[in-house]
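Ticket #4471: structure export looks truncated?
Reporter: QA, pipeline team
Priority: medium

Steps to reproduce: submit the single chain below to the structure queue and open the exported record.
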Amino acid sequence: VQLVESGGGLVQPGGSLRLSCAASGFTFSSSVMSWYRQAPGKERELVAAITSTGRSTNYADSVKGRFTISRDNAKNTVYLQMNSLKPEDTAVYYCNGRGTYWGQGTQVTVSS
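Actual output as written to the record:
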């Protein structure tokens, strides 16, 4: 099983980033996929999740209206579009598959 995140980086407050997570080694199209994040000194928290078909999503209150999770089952990839970024969004973002599999994480830093 592999989950490979990409798209992180340094962005100014108010900016946008799009994270991608390419999955392999399990049945992606039948799996719930999620994004988590962990800021320094804090516990890992759920950011967003999406059902296997993509018809249902849920978000942490702190990102509602700013972040959008989506997926492309033909490409075995899940995305996290992050808009109106704030310094408190700074964290390592992790992709999760089926509640079991984890990627290596990608750093997102929001700073001027």
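Status: closed, not a bug. The export was complete when the record was re-opened. Leaving a note from the reviewer for reference: The longest strand covers residues 17-24.
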